[in-house]
Request: fold
Amino acid sequence: MSSQAGRAVFCVLALMAMSLTPMVATASAHSSILLSVDVQHAVLEPGQSMNITLSIENNGSSIESYNITIDDTALATPWTVIPVDGTVDNVFPTWSKNTTLVVRLAEGATVADSGSFTISVTEPDNGVSSTLTVLVSVAPAYHPSLSVSGSPLITMAAGGSTNVSFVGHNLGTVTDTFLLDVEVQPDLAAWWANHTNG
Reply:
């Protein structure tokens, strides 16, 4: 199997494994505060961001305001989770209000940086709260980069040899293996210049 086909198969298997992981986020709920999100498992590539809608339902008997906090201590440093609103005000009984959480993944993240964060919604008057955990994963990506140290154009006389140094960078999100192959291209311009119909 070629390395391209192997990478494609691995990528498909990794995405299938992520899709089979439990999609039900863990929650600890007080009966008067019901929480839900539109995305329970966010999968991002490095440099991407996503908005997650948090719905807060007032299951109590009076109009309430809620404070929103994020516990991201279980997340690796490339992740940032920002609630757009720190407080959601005037939620009527049996009604819901939505707010937005912005989830960002910095460049340079790897698959090992996947994790979770916990949303905590507190009703300050009574001191009751509900929590909801959202899973976040770094999408697997292959991006090998190879550059020549010095000039990329090397002229050699027939029968000559030279040492060429390369610098390899793995700009993807998974551990990768580089397989180097030399592709030879004839100098057709010189051949045509020296060609005679003789």
User: Anything to note?
Assistant: The mean pLDDT is 84. Residues 3-20 form the longest helix (18 residues). The chain is about 15% helix and 40% strand. Residues 26-138 form a domain with the Immunoglobulin-like fold (CATH 2.60.40.10).
